[in-house]
Amino acid sequence: MGSTASPKVTPLKLETYLGVVKNSVGTHMFRNFYALIKGKPQDIMRQGDLSCAFFVSFVLVGFSLIKSIHGTVDGTKKDLVSSGWKRTRKPRPGCIIIWEPKINKRGESHKHIGFYIGNRKAVSNDSIKRAPNIHVYNIRKVDELYWHTKLNSSGR
Question: CATH number of the domain that 57 lies in?
Answer without folding.
Answer: 3.90.1720.10
